[in-house]
Amino acid sequence: MAHYLEFEKPLAEIEGKAEELRAMARANAEMDVEKEAAALDKKAADMLRDLYKNLTPWRKCQVARHPERPHCKDYIEALFTDYTPLAGDRNFADDHAVMGGLARFNGAPVMVIGHEKGFDTQSRIERNFGMARPEGYRKAIRLMELADKFGIPVIALVDTPGAYPGKGAEERGQSEAIARSTQKCLQLKVPMVSIIIGEGGSGGAVGFAAGNRVAMLEHSVYSVISPEGCASILWKDAAKMREAAEALRLTAQDLLKLGVADRVISEPLGGAQRDPKAAIEAVSKAIEAMLKELSKKKPDALIKDRRQKFIDIGSKGLAA
Amino acid sequence: MNWISNYVRPTINSIFKRSDVPDNLWTKCPECGTMLFHRELSENQQVCSNCDHHMNITPRDRFAALFDGGIFTEVKVKDPISDPLQFRDQKKYPDRMRAAQKATGEKEAMLVAEGEIGRTSIVAAAQDFSFMAGSMGMYVGNAFIAGVERAIAKKCPFVMFSAAGGARMQEGILSLMQMPRTTVAIEMLREANLPYVVVLTHPTTGGVTASYAMLGDVQIAEPNALICFAGPRVIEQTIREKLPEGFQRAEYLLDHGMLDRVTDRRKMKDELVTILRMLGGLPPAVAGELPPPAGLDTEFVEEAPVSKTPATAAPKGAVADSQKSAKPVAAAAAKK
After folding, report:
1. Fewer Cβ neighbours under 10 Å: the N or C end of chain B?
2. What positions does the entry give for Zn(2+) binding (chain B) (predicted)?
C-alpha cells in the first residue's frame, strides 16, 4: 500500500514495521522474523477492522476519494468485454472526464457511461479530475439515446467531485447540459442502473444517477455539496468539514435509509482500494442482479418505475 | 439612572416616533442610487424608474401584477416531512426556517397560483429569493409538482419564475433529489402537450438552473439576471482569473444561445400572453390591461385566499377593450 489516509497513520506504522522486518529477513538469510512479523500482521488486521467498523462520515469521504480506489476505467476494463469507446458530443468536443461506449456484460450488449478521475498527475489533468464539462453530459445524452434506440441497457458509474466550474463550461451551458442529461435518464425505455463507486458530487452526479436503480458502494458518498463547501458556507469555516459531513448525511448507509440508494454494495475490509478485484466482483454481482430484475419490465413500465422512484423520494425521513 | 430616563423619556420618544414618517418609504436603487418612493416602486413592479434596474420582487407582488385584476388562487402544496435530516449547523434548521417565515410572512420559498393572464388560463409558480435565498428543498419540489399537476388537470400552460441560490443544503441529498423529481413533472407536462415557460429572474443558480429552470419550451430572462450553474466567485477561485464584464448575466446567456429572450419585467405579462396564446392555438389577445374576467362570480373571489384588487382596477380604455375582446374569448371558450 503506497497511500495511507490520515486516519490510517497508526496502521501505516505497524504495516510498515512488518514490511521492514521481512525486508531485513530477506537480506539476512539466518534471521527468522516470521513470528514477530505475523504478530504485527495480526495487530494490523485488528486495527484495520476496528478503523473500518464505524467510519465517520468525514472518513468515508476520504475513503471515497482515495487515489488508489478503483475508478471507472478499472471497472470498465474488468467488468466488460468488447468495450468500444464512443467519443464526442457532435457539437464541440470530446470530454475526457466522461468515459463511455458499447460493451458486453456477461455477453450481452450494454451501454456504459461514467466519470473518470485519472490515476496519476498526467491522467488526472487529462481527465480534469473527473469534473465533466457540458460536452461530457452531451456525450452521455448521445450514448443514452443510442442505447435507447437499440434497446440496450445503460450502466452509469458515478465518481465525480462535481461538474466543472469553469468559464467555458458556463458559456456552453453547463446547467442546461446537466438538466438534459437527467431528463434523458428519465426518458429511457431501457433499463438503467447507476452505481456510485466513489464520490457522488451534487448536480454533476445527478445527471448520471437518475436510473431505475441506484446502488452505492459501502464507502461511497453522495451529497448536495462537498463537506468543505458546506462548512465554508454554513460554518463560515472550511475546516469544519467533519461537522458538515456529519450533518449532510451523505453516507451510503444513510442514503439507503432515506430511499435514495436502493442497495449498498459491500466493500472488502479496509475499502475497495485494499482489494480492487473483490470490489469489482461485488459490483459485477450487483449489476447482474439489478439488470436481471429490470429485464422483466416492459419499456413503459421501466419509465413509470423510474419516475415513481424519484417522486417517492423524501416520503420517509431518517427516523423511519 | 432614574425613572425619568428609564421610563418617561422612552415613552415620550416612542410617541413622537410613532407620528414620524416610517423609514421604509424610500428605497435606494442599488444600481444608480436614485431614491425611489416605495409606492411608485411597487407600481413599477420593483423596477427602478431611472435606470430600469430590476430589484427582487416577492411572488405575491409578482402575481398581483401578473394576473388579470391581481386575482389569483393559491394552489395547495403537500407538506413534506419537516427537517428530515435533523440538520444542525451553527443554528438548527427549524430555527432558520422559523426566522425565514417570520421575516417574509411566507410558509416556504415557492408560491404556486392559478388564474388568468390576458384572459388566458395559466398556473404559475414563483420562487421567493427573500426566503432562505429561494433555495430548493422538498417543499419547493412538491410545489413545482403540485403546479404541474394543476396545469395538467386544467389543461393549461405552466409558467415558472425561478430565483434561487441553489439547492437547500439543510435538506442534504433530499434537496438534490428535487432535480430529478421536478424533471419527472416536466416530462408529465410534455406528454400532456402543455407549454412550459421559464422566466429566469435574478439570481438563478446551482441545482435549480441545472434542472427545471433550463428545461422550458421557451426560456425568457429578466434583464441583467445572474443565471449560472457555478457562481462567479467559485469560478474565479477555480480558474484564477478575472471574469469578463457581464459574465453569466441574462444578456450574456442570450448571446451564447442559452436563452430565447430577455424581457423587461413590465412587458413580461404581455409577452407571456402572446407566446402562450400562440402555443395554445388561441386567437390573439386584445392589447391593453383587461378588467377582471367577466364570468367571475363573488364566490370565486371569496374562495381566493389572496385577492388583491388594485385601485386601478378599471384601467383606461377598459370598456372598449372588453367589448373588443368579447368575440375572441367566446371563440376560445367554444374551442374548449
Report:
1. N
2. 29, 32, 48, 51
